[in-house]
Fold this protein.
Amino acid sequence: MAKVTPMMEQYLSVKAQAQDAFLFFRLGDFYEMFFEDAVLAARELEITLTSRGAGAEEDRIPMCGVPYHSAENYIARLIEKGYKVAICEQVEDPAEAKGVVRREIVRVVTPGTVMDGKTLSERANNYLAAVVERSGRWAIAACDLTTGELYAVATESAADAADELAVYAVTEVVCPPYVSDRLKETLEGRLKHVVYTERQLIAGDDGAWLTERFPALRLDGLDGTHRSAAALLLQYLTETQKRSLGHLHEVRVYEPSVYMTLDPFTRKNLELTETVRDRARKGSLLEMLDKTATSMGARLLRRWLDKPLMSAGAIRLRLDAVEALQKNLLLREDMRELLKRVYDLERLSGRIAYGSANARDLNALAATLAVVPELMELSRGAGSELLGTISGDPDDGADIRDWIEAAVHPEPPASTREGGLIRDGYDAHLDKLREASKSGKRWIAELEQAEREATGIRSLKIGYNKVFGYYIEVTRANLGMVPEGRYERKQTLAAAERYVTPELKEKEALILEAEEKMVDLEYGIFQQLREKIAAEIPRLQRLAERLASLDAIQSLASVAAANRYVRPDVHEGFDLDIESGRHPVVESVLTSGTFIANDTRLTMDETRALLITGPNMAGKSTYMRQVALIMIMAQIGSFVPAKRARVPIVDRVFTRIGAADDLAGGQSTFMVEMQDIQTMIAKATEKSLVVIDELGRGTSTGEGMAIAQAVIEHLHENVGCKTLVSTHYHELAHLEGSLRYLSNACMAVKESGGQVTFLRKLVSGAADTSYGIYCAQLAGLPDSVIDRAYALLHEFEANAEARAAAPAVVGAAAGGGKPQRRGGAPDAAIHQLDMFADWNAAPPAPKRDPRADELVELVKRADVLNMTPIEAMNFLFELKKKTLS
Ligand SMILES: Nc1ncnc2c1ncn2[C@@H]1O[C@H](COP(=O)(O)OP(=O)(O)OP(=O)(O)O)[C@@H](O)[C@H]1O
């Protein structure tokens, strides 16, 4: 483009500072976008693309725009789609500008830095993280800009860093390019909707940079790697926010080992915060546990669930507090009622720091502070150490509340630029101006009466509009009575004429001047107050944290009381002993009393691993998940769904479900499963809990079974962790004989009159069958298919028996014999029924056809789940050829 207009020149130079964002360029009442921004925005926002001349006529450029008053909506839509928006405003008064009005970017909104709008959930944090790598250590600095929380943690590998990022459910990651490549590779799409923003590390000394730019920021405990991450994060925030970040006043550093590690897959699979099927909060453990009354409490409870504790002392402190409230219904109810009056102090503080809080926000702050003394009084009386600490802090923000109550009008408008913000009597000058404006208005009201009398026009009115100011209005019928000379015509309407008089004009000038001054003065007073409060933000944040903790504890106590949960006895040993445990979520959706409770005993000296076989639909997955959930609940300080529970502290919970259940995940799910198993084997310790549902299902039976056995043996021999494995491979039951600490268990069923009832009771011993065909029958498959399936099964079993008669090929890895302690026969009342007992006596097996055997063998060996469609076609073609040959 040869020559551009001065305005375009300005646009291009501003755009150069916001390459990776849409530039919303303010022109009058619109934000305009040009060039590629315009083309893309028109498509994403479904708005009309136009063009305008930018210099020479042939250089028409694409453009589109959105009205500034509805820009928030458009910005939110772009952010939701993972874009960034740089907002460029006029920064000088057009009247004073020489040439093009100066324009600057005032803020860049990005997915990780949204401060308001509907993109932001009230009950969840919105984290932005910076990630750096230094000599193999990966540090993360994560910040929720809306609340001012700022954390730093360093991990030893990219995989661990990825786990941490998943905990924060970050929406945006700022990192150098090589780090983003590694993270993307490690996360492999497991963290959905993350925007990667590539930035280089800051040049020079991170620590010096931080102290120079953020002198008030506390950096205790940060090492060099943490500091790099914090500096990168704050540099990005400075670049995008272009304003005070006074509410970020402390970086909290922690060791990853102070919390239980839960990888993204385990979180997802256990449905801790959202369900697998529709990623909804409803149906998750969080939804079950969340009876908080405030958004702060809801966010804190989620953070607790994201990071279960590892210290028995800290867990017991929380449990004591929960117990104190669980036992005291009245206290709990009173607390809840008071908490309902508490506003989101964390986000209010953020808005105050940002200078975007309005007068209503300050009133909300005062209303919140008003509740604090009573809440703390209740908390003090509850009789728990943690509640005592929370209420022991004497700061209730009474001074801040007084400032607000003295100054701010009880019912102010949402805008801070229209006056009406400040109470009468607060500022003498403002009162004077108000009086002047009021007396002017009184004078005008009196004038109306006087003019009616002077002219004899009874319908004469004095009105006001923004364009013409005050005027005297006379209807057309009365125009003849208008005094000649004294009234000056100003505006003609269809039914009336409007006039002014010199004295009305003079009064108007006085009133408007007073009002303008009043608006400015009120805004000035308000701003001063807001800044004064901004200096107290660390206090407000501490208070917010105390209130959030009360709410989270109150929530856990309410849930415990409502669902008959018990206090777990948490200890640092190995043994797990749950009497009559229940699955908190499944139980809540079943009609009361129908959930069948089950015991769990995993001990160092007897059973460390359970191999659970049993029919489909019998409740294996539910049972294993319930054990994991109970352990996680205990470590966040929650009561648990059981009659009694002694729960050891675990460092990690791993879960893995069969590949076939995870098909939505992508192409090679079996590969992903194996990678997860690899991580599990590498990371699990004796203090971990491993839950594997349908191990090795994604490949052929032989290989699947071999892998399952090898993994179980490895966990048993080399790790010694608590393990729950469910399998369809009943053949693996023999492992009980060779693995000292493994026991068989199964889900009991009862049969009567050809009907199978799942009893959902875990009993010792191995199941004989999966009842898969029975399930198929329940699902309504035609009788012909069911009959044929039974016939084939019978045949397969006969083959298997024949093979079993040959020399054994599967040897036990565990050396040494194991005492005979097979699980024993199931309860007499509960038969591990052999569905095929009748079958053995039933029609003789069809005559053996070697060709059919070969086909069956081929089909059995086929790894269908890992075949491409073409391979599957070829395979089918081969089969067909063989049947014809
Ligand atoms: N203890 C229980 N009490 C009552 N109902 C239960 C119980 N456990 C499971 N259920 C019900 O049984 C259904 C099947 O349970 P689950 O998915 O755990 O079975 P499964 O043995 O893992 O089956 P599959 O092997 O087919 O995956 C669940 O949807 C649940 O509603």
Summary: The CA atoms of residues 76 and 117 lie 7 Å apart. The pocket of adenosine-5'-triphosphate is lined by residues 586, 590, 594-596, 616-622, 760 (CB under 6 Å).
